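Take a look at the protein record below with the fold in mind.
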Amino acid sequence: MAETFYITTPIYYANSLPHLGHLYTTIVADTVARYKRQRGFDTYFLTGTDEHGINIQRAAEKEGRTPKEQVDYISGELTRMFTEFGLDTGHGGYDIFMRTTEPFHYEAAQFFWREISKNKTPKGNDTIYKGFYEGWFCAPCAAFKLEDEYYTPEGSDAPFCSVHERPLDRVSEESYFFRLSDYDEWLIDTIENTTGLVRPEARMNEVLSFIRGGLQDLSISRQKSAVSWGVPVPDDEDHVMYVWLDALSNYITAIGYGNDERASIGFDKYWPAVHLVGKDILRFHTVYWFSFLHAAGLPLPKSVYAHGMWLDADGRKMGKTLGNVIDVDVLHRYFQTDAVRYFALRDMVFGQDGKFGYENLIDRANADLASGLGNLASRTFSMITKYRDGAMPSGKITEENYLNARRAGINPDGQEIVSVVTHARDEFLRRFDNFEFSLALETVWTVIARIDKMISDAKPWELAKDERQAETLNSVLYRASETLRWLAVLLYPVMPDASKNIYAQIGLGDDIAKIDPASLTWGGLAVGTKIGETTGVFPRIEKSKVMSEINSSDQLSVDSGQSEPPAVAGGLTQSASDVQKDENNFITIDDFLKVELRVGEIKVAERVPDADKLLRFEVDLGEDKPRQILAGLAEWYEPEKLIGRKVVVVANLKPRKMRGLLSEGMICAASLTEDDTPAIATFLEDVKIGARLK
């Protein structure tokens, strides 16, 4: 019996239209699923939509729809996008598009609740209890917010979510609670001692830091009078389930847990899964999900892998107000699906942030695909058609022709090429198994460069003029073709259509999706194989023409109704127009002297997970150890470029928690423009670290 493999994307929240983030995560999951099927695994691939909660109610009301009409519309748009990009079942993609409004899910989610409630916490208390909750709730996050997870803009009556930058709702009502606080020690021990459970390591450390900061019991229901759109709490029709408890359980209900309808899929067969998630929802998929599963007596996932977010070509967060959003319909209209897949996997190091721009995509597609892989295939098959009547020649060079081959720069025994492609195959598989897609593809392109060099050095068009070099020409054509056979098999999970195209042009008819790349051996391409019809795999993209059409097509809409907060969190920024001339704003020298401004040097700079605007710094102020400071500068600065810069720090600012991290000062910055674009205060001279500004 084949080994099983179960992979999931998040089920995407059905309150808004699909976007690049949905597409990217699903491309990655689809690629992994195809790869695992190639390797012989019995693979199951889930994606879908999360369709309950107050945010969907509100979205429906805004659009004049019922909640069911709203989720049907969004789910329909998402499946349309997946079909256009070949990610649906019909194109060899996902096995199920899961929807949490399915009747079987209602039944199974309620069963999951009951199983959780039966058991005790690791500290011996009841897992679920009824109480009263009062706090700030973010509808887009579907979560109550802690003090360090929101801020209050000037002039606002309500605080704003630090993630979505929207006003929070004050909720005060009866609620069921999950006793999350009892799971802290168990979570820390489990995550620290289970290799690969939370990946990458940097994200794991963030999860551990959050847990060590203290866990509060989790409200897991809303009163039906406030939120009617949800799964009813078992035995209490006045409450509906907290959307994250309902949503997370889909990963097990879809494969038969707690219901008869899906039982044939095989919960015991496929669980546990590998979850792919964005870093913004990592906490829900680890702290909450792990605790729910443990409470129900179920195994944890094999792994939760958090990827980064896409920034624009300049390294800025994408948003409608900036006009830098990548439109998935534009991608579909102007670019081959396989080019989009290749770019997404090649240009983002999985687990880190990446840059996505139309021009970047065009440049990568032209360089690597049109001029690289596509050109290699086209020139190789064209030469076989021209010089060998479309029949695959032998790659062997007899001893009497060794010297001729060497004169043409070709190693007669071919072992060098065999060694190169074999090493590349093994390295590709190793990298792919570790989700290092970018490095895996980089390895493949070194092989393409090597074969291109062989062809350029040998000059087949010259060899064809000399009968004495017939065997040399044959060997060049065979080695290039056999390498392309290997590459087609290796690249199938990444570029399924292009790989099938190349494979067919070689003249091969077996199912490439079922060939285990680890089984590839040199010489598998039979002499005499008739080349198929030669067609261009990746036509070159006319950059200026395509960009002109994209820029003039009005695809990028600007939502003028959304504006950024007036100040940079963690920095000292203020527009000059906001400065009041009233003498009440004057301060005395004594007031000024209370502020301790010191010179600091940035030693560490990195993005804060789940916070699009925040950067985390470690700043040397000449003290025993660097200070940790958080600043809302992520939209304007690439963190790695700030390392080593000397900055002005408010050193005596009272420390405060932000996003679960303690900020021990403030980095000073000034507004450059009316839209509050900041410039960090720094020095031209070599000022001593720790020096006080006077």
Q: What stands out?
A: The chain has four domains: 4-110+240-309, 121-233, 310-554, 571-680.
